[in-house]
Amino acid sequence: MKEDSQTTPLQVHRHPMYWFDDGSVIVRAPSNQANSQDGDVLFKVHESLLRRHSTFIRQAVLEHGLGGSQNVPTLTIPRELGVQVKDFASLLEHLYHDTPLSPEAPFPHVAAILRVSSPDQLDLPSIHNLAQSYLVAMFPSGPSPFIHPSHLEEALCLALLYKITSIQKGLYYSLVTLTDFEPELGNSQSENPVPSNVLGNGGSSADLSTLHVLSPADIERCRNLMTGMVEHFTPILFTPPATPHMACTDVFADQWMALVIQSAIAGDGVYKPLETLEQIKQIDWGAKGLCPACVREKREEWTKEQEDVWEKMDGWLDLNTKE
Question: Which InterPro entries does UniProt cross-reference here (predicted)?
Answer without folding.
Answer: SKP1/BTB/POZ_sf
